[in-house]
Design brief:
Elements lengths: L10 E7 L5 H12 L4 E5 L8 H7 L11 H12 L4 E7 L4 E8 L4 E6 L6 H4 L4 E5 L3 H15 L4 H19 L8 E6 L13 E6 L9 H4 L7 E7 L5 E7 L5 H14 L12 E3 L5 E3 L1 H18 L6
Parallel strand pairs: 1-5, 1-6, 2-5, 6-7
Antiparallel strand pairs: 3-4, 7-8, 8-10, 9-10, 11-12
Length: 313
């Protein structure tokens, strides 16, 4: 049941970032907290106009809006927001082919994750919460090599060539979307261990005033050794933002304290508690990351507040 009976439409979260930025992992955690039966997850990569083989022939990458049905994606987001079903296209990442469309009905929460979710004003106006993922670039390369060679049928040299070919498209089409996000989430290795790519990664949250972010004072007052730090800073565009740093070395007790604080701020959603922070490491094993878990919970906090009617748009 909706948290607020006056909210009669789905609550929509956008998660945008470059290829292998961690969108699917973050999305899965948020959906798990909210409850899979209450969440519709759509990968906007399904709106690719061309198959992998066709992109090789025409030289238009998946990062280029011309290689995607952006107009259809806009129509579908609006329809879902209005509670209407869609006939969603399907793109198979395993072999890069286009499949048969799927009939999809909206649910209480909708998560749209992909490359180009904020590339038009029509789409941006449909989201309640907008997140942009911006991991350390060397880390993203590691993640992409791991994923594409293990799950998408690419060879190592193919992945590295793809990075080089798509650099300009990333700069021109993906990174400009950062400016529209309410939160910019950046995972990065600690200075003392630049090879870290999993559970011990630090995370930085750029929190923009476009949303009322939770009061974390009780946690932050514990001091620098708590594993958290909040600073007032300037974003890349010069505008003031809060920057929350969560250390990858944070201990279980302090991570749990932040989880409890966030749950206390959304008591209406206490029944949603779930195991957080799961990811797949470079040996295809499941691990747990406190910074990832807390990032997922921070985002869920905003979705619950939107469902309560606090962020009406």
């Amino acid at each position: 049941m909706p948290l607020n009976p006056n909210i009669t439409r789905p609550i929509i979260l956008g998660i945008v970032g470059d290829s292998a930025a961690g969108k699917t992992t973050l999305t899965a955690g948020v959906a798990q907290i909210l409850g899979q039966e209450r969440v519709l997850t759509i990968c906007t990569d399904d709106y690719h106009r061309y198959s992998r083989a066709e992109r090789e022939q025409n030289g238009i990458s998946a990062l280029d809006p011309r290689g995607n049905y952006i107009d259809i994606l806009e129509q579908h987001i609006r329809a879902l927001r209005n509670g209407e079903p869609i006939l969603k296209p399907v793109y198979d990442h395993r072999d890069g082919t286009l499949g048969r469309p799927e009939y999809v009905e909206p649910k209480e929460y909708i998560i749209l994750e992909g490359l180009l979710g904020y590339s038009s004003r029509a789409m941006r106006d449909c989201y309640d919460v907008k997140v942009y993922l911006e991991p350390d670039e060397n880390l993203r390369v590691k993640w992409k090599v791991q994923r594409d060679t293990a799950k998408r049928g690419y060879g190592l040299e193919e992945v590295l060539r793809s990075f080089e070919r798509r650099k300009s498209d990333s700069i021109n089409f993906i990174r400009p979307q950062r400016t529209f996000a309410d939160m910019v989430v950046s995972f990065h290795p600690p200075e003392h261990n630049l090879d870290e790519s999993g559970a011990r990664l630090n995370v930085r949250h750029v929190l923009r005033p476009t949303l009322p972010h939770p009061d974390l004072t009780p946690i932050l007052d514990a001091g620098a050794k708590s594993g958290f730090r909040m600073d007032l800073s300037r974003d890349v565009d010069g505008k003031p933002v809060d920057v929350l740093e969560i250390s990858g070395d944070i201990d279980d007790k302090r991570a749990k304290a932040m989880e409890e604080l966030l749950w206390s701020l959304i008591p209406e959603a206490g029944h949603l508690r779930a195991n957080l922070g799961q990811f797949t490491d470079n040996e295809n094993r499941t691990g747990i990351s406190h910074p990832l878990a807390l990032s997922q919970l921070l985002i869920t906090f905003h979705l619950v507040k939107a469902a309560l009617g606090h962020y009406a748009i």
